[in-house]
């Protein structure tokens, strides 16, 4: 197990280096002077600053040397400087990261729990009206643009019904502390987390349903029936556990999309996370921030994949042994 | 072929999806006829609600532009970008998957590490970065969507080719002295067609969603009226003018839904026994 | 055995297939009894409906398949009329079942003892601790080595035979009155099969169960059955004591089936040494390595083919026989270079096939072709038959028109109508596809043909026809044949000489009659003794 984790960490590190390299070449592939690209929107930075950048990153040296300087910077957690915000990018991201982690984790838990539940339910009543209903709803969620669902949720629950706040992370000027603050944040979290979870809920539901149906045709389920086990027990102990394996794999693969979806959700709900940071950087063409957020979100995905891989090994003895 | 149609027809959702798609395609094709004026042109006072004027059934936006006309031209953009970017992803993914699956060994290792990298990278974030750096345009959007969408194709094709490669009829073809290129093109790829078609129909749907999300964030081609752009522009005025976000979003929803339904129908019709997951 | 009590009576059973199936009923008007303490074999080829009545009595019929008439009486209760709850109570307790694929019949994520303990749990018997103890006792009874350890193992850690023993232990747990065994040895090697058959017979005697044994193999019937029911297309065509049915079959179909079983009698081969050599294999070696490397853990090395040498005479049929994992298929694949051997040479007309590459390999390979096992996977489903056969010659420069004309001739030669040229593979049966595969192999006018389990996937009557065809073609075209098989009966029928392989090694090579009548190595002897039905056949031969 330890060797497995070590192996995966090395692999993750290689991918991160590849991403940094990709970022580096993107800066150079962009139209215009790399120094201007790093400084942000063309013309916004003054000559002195550009000159500083050129020296710092050795922009007049050969490309490989430049790459080395750039990589060395990232290793020291230096993701560049945002000229626009007058702050190091790493600091900007660090401030916003907790909000995004809270949002994506909540969305992930909601979608996984509700999605698999609905999938199990639908598979148990395959062909009946409740299955049709669940499957149709899932299909709709699957096709709904995330940001549009978010806007409609604001319109309905916040503007029309006034049930939930549709804006921000906590009540501005509320000055809540302790438990009251937790409750306030939780209230603000409900709409963004559930809209971000919608698409993934549909994905997990469809996967769970298909997987449950497939596993239930396997021979060992017939064995379980031949033993005289009750259907509920067969469902739980034999079918569900085996059916969850592909869902876990899928959850790992979908992590990247969850971070991407956060950009849209945070934009609509003015959620102060790295997604919103990315959106603001877009408008200002603040490339250092863009690339920094991209790098950090990739790191989050890698971490998440590591967790699902470990989970998979715990669940499946066959992988553990190989 | 008749067989295919009869199996496709059995899936009622798929038929409904096809009907919706036909309508969307027709609207896109007829947009210049139905709305000869540019969708960017101001035609009435701003924020005209739907159903207040017969000529403008869906009302006008913050700059007095015809929402219905925007929707029709937006259909063009969605379909064009969805289709072309899918074709480009197939052109990247199929050769990579076929080579990796057929030759195995270090070729497979190398190509799959490469694919894995693109699959691990958060694909929407990468698309944003790509379009932002290369400046929004139809080409950069199509390129960005293709770059983040091909890995599933490569993995699917590799898996199919890998299993077909050890199929006895392929081994017989090797023994009978056929060249590798002949074997890949004539013996193997034709047999991977059905799952590729199914995946492609789902990818068009995903590409349309991706394009609209990019446009929503302000990364659409500035010369083209697209559904995502319309919603993005209406985001800040949602409290005053709900219809500006509602209708374009609904159009996206229906189009994507239609494509997904068609994908499921194709799956039933082409892989009667197996239902594969594209994702 | 006393002919007193029937534990089970099936009367006029009819089971309907869903619409669009090849016939309306899976079984129709089937009646038979199962008596206490006997082993009844239900025999039939694939599609005969032999498993259907057993599945019906367990309530395990596939969706859309329903019993439509008749009754299944278990001690005077009609199982078909029983509620699902009542039937569930009988399952596992009174009637137990084991299946064909021990690989997939166990839950991959549960430990063996937990799966056995579930049988007690299902019927609310014993405490959890007692269940575990019983599980180990049961594993001991079915002869699993180190039962304590096996109990904590996951299924993937056991061999095929051990898994089937676990299934049997599970079935035995509640001392059922009836044990249904649905092709339980078909997926196993011949020596493992012999052990499992003996185990089932022993347990049947010790526990006094009635056993319903479903099989396609008359050898197994001869080995284990007290009584036999022969099924064809959903009907019982013959029914009686095992000895009577086997020795004096009454129905034409039974006669045909029994006649089609390859006889274990091997003719004395003509001396192969005097002939010209078609192929010489020297020191062929193939090793598989997995794992290893920087992080892969300990390297695993499998010697699939270990320093093997033999000669194949012109016009000779050499059998390569072994169980799964013996390396017999790897030998065949190394000969035609579908795999690259690590060492050794394969001399063919003075060329070393083992080291050729590129264009040279392509040319030389023309004279050594292969027939494959799976009639469904060996033809490209999207190509017409004509193209499938003509492709090879065309790739070697024969004009298309001429190649297609040749294809038509070849179809005729293998006993198919030349009009088949314009049809697709799915329009043909398994036996016909295998004939097409043979025609394809012949299209390049090879001198040597490698047949890799070429008849293993076929029903016994079809198998006999294809074997006859191969034998006939061999003589007519003066071919040399390497016949790879796990089935010693088939080898006995068709081979002049036989090479016996075990774990990558060639343990014995000799004329067929020497191998069968005078085996020199212990392993060969154990293989031959394990052939089902052999003792009966020997007794009959006097």
UniProtKB/TrEMBL annotation, chain A:
InterPro entries: BPD_transp_1_N, MetI-like, MetI-like_sf. It comes from the Bacteria. It is a multi-pass membrane protein. Keywords: Cell membrane, Membrane, Transmembrane, Transmembrane helix, Transport. Its main location: membrane. It is found in: Cell membrane. The keyword Glycosyltransferase does not apply. The chain crosses the membrane at residues 12-30, 97-121, 133-157, 185-204, 243-269, 289-312. One of its GO terms (biological process) is transmembrane transport. Residues 97-312 form the ABC transmembrane type-1 domain. One of its GO terms (cellular component) is plasma membrane. Belongs to the binding-protein-dependent transport system permease family. This is ABC transporter permease. The lineage of its organism: Bacteria, Pseudomonadati, Pseudomonadota, Alphaproteobacteria, Hyphomicrobiales.
TrEMBL record, chain B:
It holds the Pfam family OppC_N. CDD domains: TM_PBP2. Its main location: membrane. It comes from the Bacteria. The keyword Coiled coil does not apply. InterPro entries: BP-dependent_transpt_permease, MetI-like, MetI-like_sf, OppC_N. Coiled coil: none annotated. GO terms for biological process: peptide transport; protein transport; transmembrane transport. Residues 75-263 form the ABC transmembrane type-1 domain. One of its GO terms (cellular component) is plasma membrane. PROSITE patterns: ABC_TM1 (PS50928). Keywords: Cell membrane, Membrane, Peptide transport, Protein transport, Transmembrane, Transmembrane helix, Transport. The chain crosses the membrane at residues 12-35, 79-103, 124-150, 196-220, 241-262. It is a multi-pass membrane protein. It is found in: Cell membrane. Belongs to the binding-protein-dependent transport system permease family. This is ABC transporter permease.
From TrEMBL, chain C:
It comes from Roseibium aggregatum. Residues 8-258, 279-528 form the ABC transporter domain. GO terms for molecular function: ATP binding; ATP hydrolysis activity. It is found in: Cell inner membrane. It is a peripheral membrane protein. This is ABC transporter ATP-binding protein. PANTHER family: D,D-DIPEPTIDE TRANSPORT ATP-BINDING PROTEIN DDPF-RELATED (PTHR43776:SF7), TRANSPORT ATP-BINDING PROTEIN (PTHR43776). The keyword Zinc-finger does not apply. One of its GO terms (biological process) is peptide transport. PROSITE patterns: ABC_TRANSPORTER_1, ABC_TRANSPORTER_2. Transmembrane segments: none annotated. Keywords: ATP-binding, Nucleotide-binding, Transport. InterPro entries: AAA+_ATPase, ABC_transp_ATP-bind, ABC_transporter-like_ATP-bd, ABC_transporter-like_CS, Oligopep_ABC_C, P-loop_NTPase.
């Amino acid at each position: 197990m330890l060797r497995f984790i070590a192996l995966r960490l090395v692999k993750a590190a290689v991918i991160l280096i590849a991403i940094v390299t990709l970022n580096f070449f993107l800066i150079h592939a962009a139209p215009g002077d790399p120094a201007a690209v790093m400084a942000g929107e063309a013309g916004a930075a003054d000559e002195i600053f550009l000159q500083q950048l050129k020296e710092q990153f050795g922009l007049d040296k050969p490309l490989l040397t430049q790459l080395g300087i750039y990589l060395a910077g990232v290793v020291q957690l230096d993701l560049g400087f945002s000229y626009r915000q007058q702050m190091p990018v790493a600091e900007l991201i660090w401030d916003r990261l907790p909000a995004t982690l809270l949002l994506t984790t909540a969305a992930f838990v909601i979608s996984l729990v509700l999605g698999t539940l609905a999938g199990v339910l639908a598979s148990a009543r395959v062909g009946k009206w409740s299955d049709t209903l669940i499957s149709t709803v899932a299909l709709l969620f699957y096709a709904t643009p995330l940001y549009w669902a978010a806007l409609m949720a604001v319109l309905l629950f916040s503007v029309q019904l006034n049930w939930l706040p549709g804006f921000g992370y906590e009540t501005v000027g509320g000055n809540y502390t302790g438990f009251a603050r937790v409750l306030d944040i939780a209230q603000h979290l409900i709409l963004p987390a559930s809209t971000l979870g919608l698409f993934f809920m549909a994905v997990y539901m469809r996967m769970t349903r298909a997987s449950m149906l497939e596993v239930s045709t396997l021979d060992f389920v017939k064995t379980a029936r031949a033993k005289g086990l009750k259907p509920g027990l067969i469902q739980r102990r034999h079918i569900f556990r085996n059916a969850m394996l592909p869902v876990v794999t899928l959850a790992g693969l979908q992590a990247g999309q969850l971070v991407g979806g956060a950009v849209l959700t945070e934009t609509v709900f003015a959620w102060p996370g790295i997604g919103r940071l990315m959106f603001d950087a877009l408008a200002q063409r603040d490339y250092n921030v863009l690339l920094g957020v991209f790098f950090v979100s990739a790191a989050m995905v890698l971490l998440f994949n590591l967790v699902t891989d470990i989970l998979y090994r715990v669940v499946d003895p066959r992988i553990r042994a190989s | 072929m008749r067989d295919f149609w009869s199996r496709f027809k059995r899936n009622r959702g798929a038929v409904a999806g096809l009907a919706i798609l036909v309508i969307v395609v027709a609207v896109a094709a007829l947009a210049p006829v139905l709305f000869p004026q540019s969708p960017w042109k101001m035609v009435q006072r701003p924020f005209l609600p739907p159903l207040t004027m017969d000529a403008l059934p869906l009302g006008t936006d913050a700059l007095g532009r015809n929402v219905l006309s925007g929707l029709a031209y937006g259909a063009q953009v969605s379909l064009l970008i969805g289709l072309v970017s899918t074709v480009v992803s197939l052109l990247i993914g199929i050769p990579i998957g076929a080579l990796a699956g057929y030759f195995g060994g270090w070729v497979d290792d190398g190509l799959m590490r490469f694919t894995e990298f693109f699959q691990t990278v958060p694909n929407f974030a990468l698309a944003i970065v790509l379009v932002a750096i290369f400046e929004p345009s139809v080409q950069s959007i199509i390129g960005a969507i293709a770059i983040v969408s091909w890995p599933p194709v490569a993995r699917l094709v590799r898996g199919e080719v890998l299993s077909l490669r050890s199929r006895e009829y392929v081994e017989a073809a090797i023994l009978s002295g056929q060249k590798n290129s002949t074997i890949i093109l004539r013996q193997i790829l034709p047999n991977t067609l059905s799952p590729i078609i199914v995946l492609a129909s789902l990818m068009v749907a995903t590409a349309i969603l991706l394009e609209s999300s990019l446009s929503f964030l302000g990364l659409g081609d500035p010369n083209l009226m697209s559904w995502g752009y319309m919603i993005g522009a209406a985001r800040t005025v949602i409290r005053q003018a709900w219809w500006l976000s509602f209708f374009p979003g609904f159009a996206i929803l229906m189009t994507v839904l239609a494509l997904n339904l068609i994908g499921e129908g194709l799956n039933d019709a082409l892989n009667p026994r197996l239902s594969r997951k594209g994702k | 055995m006393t002919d007193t009590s029937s534990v089970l009576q099936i009367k006029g059973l009819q089971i309907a297939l869903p619409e669009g199936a090849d016939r309306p009923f899976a079984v129709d008007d089937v009646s038979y009894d199962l008596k206490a303490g006997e082993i009844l074999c239900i025999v039939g080829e694939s599609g005969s409906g032999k498993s259907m009545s057993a599945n019906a009595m367990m309530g395990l019929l596939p969706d859309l398949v329903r019993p439509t008439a008749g009754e299944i009486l278990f001690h005077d209760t009609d199982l078909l009329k029983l509620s699902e709850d009542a039937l569930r109570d009988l399952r596992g307790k009174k009637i137990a079942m084991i299946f064909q694929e021990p690989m997939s019949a166990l839950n991959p994520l549960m430990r063996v003892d937990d799966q056995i303990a579930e049988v007690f749990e299902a019927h609310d018997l014993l405490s959890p601790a007692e269940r575990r103890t019983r599980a180990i006792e049961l594993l001991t009874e079915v002869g699993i080595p180190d039962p304590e350890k096996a109990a904590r193992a996951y299924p993937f850690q056991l061999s095929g035979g051990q898994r089937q023993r676990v299934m049997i232990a599970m079935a035995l747990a509640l001392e059922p009155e009836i044990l249904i065994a649905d092709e339980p040895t078909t997926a196993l090697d011949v020596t493992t099969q012999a052990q499992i058959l003996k185990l089932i017979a022993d347990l049947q005697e010790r526990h006094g169960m009635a056993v319903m044994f479903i099989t396609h193999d008359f050898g197994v019937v001869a080995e284990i059955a007290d009584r036999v029911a022969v099924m064809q297309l959903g009907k019982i065509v013959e029914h009686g004591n095992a000895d009577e049915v086997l020795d004096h079959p009454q129905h034409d179909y039974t006669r045909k089936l029994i006649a089609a079983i390859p006889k274990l009698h091997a003719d004395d081969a003509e001396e192969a040494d005097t002939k010209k050599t078609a192929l010489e294999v020297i020191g062929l070696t193939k090793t598989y390595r997995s794992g290893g490397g920087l992080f892969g853990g300990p390297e695993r090395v499998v010697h699939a083919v270990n320093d093997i040498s033999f000669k194949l005479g012109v016009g000779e049929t050499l059998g390569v026989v072994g169980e799964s994992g013996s390396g017999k298929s790897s030998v065949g694949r190394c000969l035609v270079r579908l795999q690259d051997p690590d060492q050794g040479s394969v001399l063919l007309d003075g060329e070393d096939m083992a080291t050729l590459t590129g264009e040279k390999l392509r040319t030389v390979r023309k004279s050594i072709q292969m027939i494959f096992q799976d009639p469904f996977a060996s033809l490209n489903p999207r190509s017409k038959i004509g193209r499938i056969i003509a492709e090879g010659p065309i790739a070697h420069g024969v004009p298309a028109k001429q190649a297609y004309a040749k294809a038509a001739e070849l179809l005729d030669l293998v006993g198919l109508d030349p009009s088949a040229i314009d049809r697709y593979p799915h329009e043909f049966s398994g036996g016909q596809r295998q004939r097409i595969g043979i025609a394809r192999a012949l299209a390049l006018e090879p001198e040597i043909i490698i047949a890799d389990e070429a008849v293993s996937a076929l029903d016994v009557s079809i198998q006999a026809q294809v074997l006859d065809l191969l034998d006939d073609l061999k003589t007519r075209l003066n071919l040399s044949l390497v016949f790879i098989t796990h089935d010693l009966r088939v080898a006995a029928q068709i081979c002049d000489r036989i090479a016996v392989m075990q774990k990558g090694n060639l343990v014995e090579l000799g004329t067929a009659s020497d191998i069968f009548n005078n085996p020199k190595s212990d392993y060969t002897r154990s293989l031959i003794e394990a052939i089902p039905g052999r003792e009966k056949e020997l007794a009959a031969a006097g």
